[in-house]
# Entry
Amino acid sequence: MTMFPPALRNVLAWLPFEHIAYTPLRIYLGKLQGVAALEALGVQLLWAMALLALGSRFWHLMARKITIHGG
# Structure
């Protein structure tokens, strides 16, 4: 993420992609500490909860109408 321009980096920081590997690596290397590390973990938690809720909702919508062909 460090190779992107600052304006784009600020937008990408709130998307879930950065938090897959980059955030844990920065915490492990000590580049994020204290409040910044807690904020990054909070954003990760919010994305995890949001994606779980969306996935669950999608599953229930799709499971209502299922067609199985074959034996």
